[in-house]
Amino acid sequence: MKKNKWLSYVYWILLSEAVGALAGWLTEGGMREYERAAAKPPLTPPGMVFPIVWAVLFLLMGIGAARVSLSARSPARTRSLWLYCVQLLVNFFWSIAFFNLQSFAFAFWWLIFLWLLILWMTISFLRADRAASFLQLPYLVWVAFAAYLNCGVWLLNR
Predict the structure, then answer these.
(1) Contact between residue 71 and residue 129 where contact means Cβ atoms under 8 Å apart
(2) Tens digits of residue pLDDT in 80-115
(3) Residue 145 belongs to a domain with what CATH number?
(4) Which pTM value belongs to this model?
């Protein structure tokens, strides 16, 4: 049976963007409080940069997941899509820990866990679809930068 490629792309991109949008919506009040009250480390971009960057990253993640889902059935494909869903869930809860709970220390360690999951997923994607793996590299870099920012916020707001 031939898969509908466009539907696969639409599904994975919408899933990714929906998770990001839901996290943004649920943490809107916490983000406002964070912007108003938290001390931030050097190199912190303006607040308007974050939703733009995350929208692009969720798009790249979704494209990568779609490419993997369209690859040949294999243990690598199954593992990759499982890892994708797990890291997406972990990503979602970071926003709540950081913005709503303002538990900056916990959020930092959660983000380290997320980065390791993204690395594992990226390596797993490599075995299923090389291009899908490369599409995750900006995400990996951005989350490393986010860890720097998160750690700085934690240290400056004890």
Answers:
(1) yes
(2) 999 999 999 999 999 999 999 999 999 999 999 999
(3) 1.20.1260.100
(4) 0.93
